[in-house]
């Protein structure tokens, strides 16, 4: 990461942050961009927790941090921050931490992989615009299940996950929240169901592991929490869970795609043969 890019300045928790966005021309350019939901998550956290947990050195994970806005802001207040993203944008993310002269552990990470090296469990996890996925490649697995697995791997009994997203595909987003609720997490939100909201609405929710669902030992120090302490309404029970893609789903899709191509080719050949035979007669 050698070329100095154009800088963007944003204010989070009344502190200015200088960010460089990644000039990413890949099919999915979202990773190295600043998303306004990051500031929304910061406000959502401030309303519920204030800044004292950060000042007291709590452990924070900025998962798939992009340009790192929320993680950098948390580090400015004294939190012990780990920020992750895919390898393609990790250099730009690390440069933003250095640019703002804050300490943080910046690591490449892909959802669903073993997360032990990230150092969890964490006190707080920020997850900004992680449901933004439009099927960039038909052979890619749906990332919602690896995301859910990752959130579980890095959470402990007292972890609070602050999730924020913009409604783009409400059915998919609702399915993700429903699956989290039915399998691992208590989900609290002030917002209606995504399917009841207009497209482009910002939704914020807090997730906490259900008792006995932690895959990691309790952190050495964690904020005091009570279930539903902020008076948020739990999401209603859902009737169906999101189907979980198995590890071989990508292979099956490739096989089905190949069979479909062969089938279409065979049908075309049969039609051509019939046409020529008809002409001969």
What does this structure look like?
With 281 residues, the protein is of the alpha/beta class. 32% of the residues lie in helices and 21% in strands. The protein contains seven helices and nine strands; from the N terminus they run ββααβαβαββαβαββα. The protein has a seven-stranded mixed β-sheet with strand order 5-4-3-6-7-9-8, sandwiched between helices. Strands 1-2 form a two-stranded antiparallel ribbon. Strand 1 (7-12) and strand 2 form a beta hairpin. The model is unreliable at 221-255 and 275-281 (pLDDT under 50).
* Gross morphology: globular
Q: Residue share in helices?
A: 25-40%
Instruction: Give the quaternary arrangement of the chains.
Output: single chain
How many whole angstroms does the radius of gyration measure?
22 Å
Query: How many beta-strand elements?
Result: 9
Total helical elements = 7
* Unreliable parts: 221-255, 275-281
Category from helices, strands and their pairing: alpha/beta
Strand content: 15-25%
Q: Biggest sheet, in brief? A: 7 strands, mixed
Question: What is the mean predicted local confidence, pLDDT?
Answer: 80
Q: Kindly report the spatial arrangement of strands forming the biggest sheet.
A: 5-4-3-6-7-9-8
Termini distance?
Answer: 70 Å
Give me the strand/helix succession: EEHHEHEHEEHEHEEH
Summarize the entry for a quick read:
With 281 residues, the protein is an alpha/beta fold. Helix content is 32%, strand content 21%.
């Amino acid at each position: 990461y050698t070329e100095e890019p154009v800088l963007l300045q944003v204010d989070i928790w009344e502190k200015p942050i200088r960010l460089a966005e990644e000039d990413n021309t890949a099919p999915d350019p979202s990773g190295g961009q600043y998303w306004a939901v990051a500031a929304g998550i910061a406000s959502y956290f401030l309303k519920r927790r204030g800044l004292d947990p950060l000042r007291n050195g709590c452990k924070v994970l900025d998962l798939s941090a992009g340009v790192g806005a929320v993680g950098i802001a948390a580090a400015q207040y004294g939190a012990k921050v780990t920020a992750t993203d895919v390898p393609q944008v990790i250099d730009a993310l690390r440069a933003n931490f250095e640019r703002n002269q804050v300490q943080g552990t910046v690591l490449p990470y892909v959802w669903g992989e073993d997360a032990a090296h990230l150092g969890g469990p964490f006190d707080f996890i920020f997850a900004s615009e992680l449901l933004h996925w439009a099927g960039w490649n038909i052979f890619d697995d749906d990332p919602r299940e690896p995301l859910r697995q990752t959130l579980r791997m890095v959470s402990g009994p007292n972890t609070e996950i602050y999730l924020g997203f913009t409604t783009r595909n409400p059915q998919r987003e609702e399915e993700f929240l429903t699956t989290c609720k039915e399998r691992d997490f208590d989900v609290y939100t002030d917002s209606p169901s995504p399917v009841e909201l207009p497209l482009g609405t910002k939704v914020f929710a807090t997730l906490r592991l259900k008792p006995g669902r932690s895959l990691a030992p309790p952190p050495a120090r964690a904020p005091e929490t009570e279930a539903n302490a902020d008076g948020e309404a739990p999401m209603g029970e859902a009737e169906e869970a999101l189907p979980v893609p198995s590890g071989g789903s990508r292979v099956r899709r490739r096989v089905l795609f190949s069979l479909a191509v062969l089938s279409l080719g065979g049908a075309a050949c049969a039609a051509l043969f019939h046409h020529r035979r008809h002409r001969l007669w």
